[in-house]
Amino acid sequence: MATSALRTQVSVKYAESLEKLLAADKEKRLNPGLLNYSQALTLASEYLRPYDIKDRAAMMRPRTAFNINDVRTAFAMVHFSHQLPALTEIFLEDMRKSFHLIEYEINAYMTRYEINGCRRLRETKNLELFRMLVSRLHDWFKAWHPPTECASPDSPSQTHTDVIPPSLSSFFSGTYTLSFQTRLFAALPPSFARGFKALASWCLAPEDYPPMVSASGAPIKIDAVWTEFEKLGLIERYESVISSVAYEHIERRIEETCPNNWAVPMLPEIREWMTQKVVPWMLKIFTHGVTSRHDTQSLLTGIGARFDFHVNKVLCDLRIKEIFNIIVDYPDSLGALQDLKETLQRVDQRGDLVKFLRKENNKRLLHPGADTQTILQQYVSTIKCLRIVDPPGVLLYKVANPIRQYLRERPDTIRCIVGSLVGDDESGDSLVDDDEPIQPLQQPESEDYGDLEWNPEPIDAGPEFKTNKPSDVISTLVSIYDSKDLFVKELQVLLAQRLLAIDDNDTARVDKERRNIEILKIRFGDAALQVCAVMLKDMTDSKRTDDHIQGQTPSVVHPTVISHHFWPTLDQSDIVMPGQFQQMQEDYAKQFSVFKPDKKLKWLPHLGTVHLELELQDRTLDVDVPPLEAAFIELFSQKDTWSLEELIKAVGNVDRSAAVKALSTWTNMGVIKEQNENTFVLLEQAEDGAEMREMAPIQAAPSLPPVQTVQQQEAEQMRVHWKFIEGMLTNLGSLSLDRIQTMLRFSPNYDKTAEQLGYFLEAARREGLLVVQNGMWRLNK
Amino acid sequence: MKVTIKNWHAIAYWRWDTGKEDEEDGEEGDVCGICRVAFEACCPACKVPGDDCPLIYGECTHVFHMHCLLKWIGTAASNSQCPMDRRTWGKLSPRAAASYGYCQSLTCL
Ligand SMILES: [Zn+2]
Ligand SMILES: [Zn+2]
Ligand SMILES: [Zn+2]
Does residue A632 sit at the B interface (CB-CB below 8 Å)? Predict the structure, then answer.
C-alpha cells in the first residue's frame, strides 16, 4: 500500500522527468498533454506490433509512417507510468499471434526442400533454397525488431533511431531476441538441421558439390549466410552439427589417405590439411558476432583443440586396428608407428591397443597353424615396434606376456631361437639383425615374465611392472625361459649335429662353427659354452691325430674322436661293421693307441658317412652312404641273396625299421631288389628300365646325426614321474602345467623345471597319452 | 661286386686305457674316487679333458685325476696316503710312469 509520502515522491519524479522531456522537445512543438496513459500504451504497442512482411499494405505502413514525436512521447509515458511490463506483454503476445506467418514460410521452404530430398542433382538447388530461407528468416527478424539506438542501413532517418531511449531499446532488443529465437527454434523441423549441416559441409568442401550458381548464372556469395545464422542464434544452437561436419570430414580425410600408408607419419600431413582447410572454415563460421580479438582467439583455441583431438583419436583408432600388420611390415611401417606414438600421447587409447593386439595375436599368431619361427619373428618385431611407440615398455610388457607363455609351451621354441643364434640355414629369416651389437645377455632379476598369475590391469602399468632396461632382442628371447641353461644345452645339441656332419679335412666349416661359438660366448659367457669349446677342440685334435696316423699308416678311415662326456647323448647302437670295415676299424684303433698310449678308441659305428665305389658287372657306382647302408652292401659283396633277418643278425643288432630304410637306399639305386618278401638279391646287372647312373656320385640323403635332442633327454628322465602325473590327472581331471609342477614338487626326487615338465607333457601328448586344451592337461581316454 | 671304401668319415670316442679289458670296463667308465667325476671328464679344476687333465696310477691300483690327487696329497690331512685305502701313496706303476712323465714331480712329494 503506497503511502501518501511515496505517492508525492513519485509524482515529483514524474514531474521532473516530464519537465526534462518537455524541455528537450520544446522546439519540436510537442503536445504531450494530449495523450493519456492508455492511449500511449496503445500507440507504443501499435508501433512495435509485428507485421507481415509479405503484405504489401503492411509494407506500405512501416514504422516510419507514425508521427515520430507522438511515438516518442508515448514511450516516455509508458516508461514513466511503469507500464513497461504491460507493453512487453502486449508486444510478445502480438508476436506470438503473428509468428504463424514465419512458420508458414518455414514450412513452405522446408516442404520444397524435403521434396527435393537428397538427390545429388538437386543438392545445390536445395542449398540455395536453404540459404534463401535463412535470408528470409533474417528479414523477418530484422523487420520485427524493436528500433534500436543504432542506425540501421535501410532507415537512415535520424529521428527514427532515437525514438526509444537507449536503455529501453536494449531491454526490448534482448527480450525480443530471446522470444523470437525460442519461437523460431520450436518452429524449425528436424530437416532444418540436415540443411544446416549440408550448408556447413558445402562451405568446408565446395569441391564436393557442383558449383552453386544463382538463376542469373553468377556464383552465389554464401558467406553472408553465416552472419544471418549468427543473428538468429543458430550458430550456437547448431554448434554440435557444425562440429559433426568437421568430424566427418576429418574421418573421411583419414579414411582416404591413411589406411595401409605406413611408410611416413601421416599426422603432420593431416594437420597441414586442417590448417589449410578446416581452420579458415572455422573462422568463417564462428567469428561472426564475436567482437574482440581475444574472444576469437580463445574460441578458436577451444574448438581447434577439439578438432585436433578428433584427428588424433581417429588416426589412433585406425593404427590400432592395423597394428598387427604394421608389426608384420616392420621396419617398413615406421611412419605408422610414429603416428601411433604421437596420437597415444594425446588420446588415452593405450588400453585399447593392448587389448586389440592381444586379441589379434591370439587369433592370428598363437595357434597351432603358425610355425614357431613365424611366431618368434612377429614377437621380435613386436618388441621393436612397441619400443618405438612406448619406450618405457609398459605396452610391450602387457602384449608380450601371452606370446611368451605360448612360446614357452612350444617344444621347438628353443631350437628355433638357437638356430637363428648360430645362423642355422634351415630356420629361414634370422631373428637377429646383423647390425645389432653383440652383447652379454641381460637377465635382470626383476623380469618376472614367468609369473602366470599375472593379470592385465585395466589402467596402465600395474605395480608389478618394473621399468626394465630395454635389452637386446636375444636377451629378450632367452628370457622367455627361466634360465639360459636350456639354451646352452640346445646349442650343444645343435653344434654336435653340425660338427658330426662335417667331413674330415673340412677345416673351414669347423672354423666357421668356432667363430659362431666365439660370438655366442660374448652373449652366454665363457663358462656356459665351455662344453662347446671342448667339442671344437675335439674336432681339431681329431684332425691332428688323423694327420699323424695317416703319416704312419695311410688309411681311408678318418674318424672324429670325441670326448663323449662333453657331447650330448648320442643315440646308442650295437651294430658291428662287417668284413673289411671291421678290419679297418681295428687297424686304425691300434694306430691310435700307438700314438696315444694312455688312450683307446671306441667306435660309434652307426655314425658318420662312408664314400664307396661299387663295381658291378655292368656298372660302377660312386656313393656316399651312412654306415649301416655300407655294412649291408659289404655283406652283399660276400653273398648275393640275404633275408632281412640274416642281414640284421650279420650287423649285430639293429632296429628293423632302420634296416628297412637302409635297404631301401640300395633298392632305390637299383643295386639290390626285394625278390620275395623280406628277401633281397644283388643285381650284378642292372634290370631293364633301371637307369644306369654310372659314376654320378649318389648321395643317400644323409640324415642328421642322431643326437638326442634336449627334449628327448629330458623326457627320458621324466618318465620316472609319469605314474605320479597319471594318478594326479585321474583324480583331478584336468590341471594346468603350473599346477602339475606344484604338485610334482611333493614327489620324491623331483627336480625338473616347468619348461622341462612342459616338454614331457608335450611328448606325452604326441604319444596320445594326454590332451591339452586352453592350457589344461588331462588324460586322453 | 667289388666294394671299395674310398673314404670313411667315422665317429669314435676315446677312453683312458686303465689296463682293464673291455668287458670289465663298464660302458660308463669309472669315476675318480676323489671328485666322483668320470675319468674321461675332467677334474673340477680343469675345463678341458684328456691330455690336459690326465690320470695318475697308484701302487695300490687306485686311479685318480692327477690334479685331484696332487691337491689331496698337498693337504696336511692326507699324510701322503691314498685317500681310498690309507696306504702310503706309492710310486707310480711303471706302465703309467712310462705313459706320463711326471713321476719325478710325484716322487719328490
Ligand atoms: Zn678327480
Ligand atoms: Zn684336472
Ligand atoms: Zn689306493
Answer: no
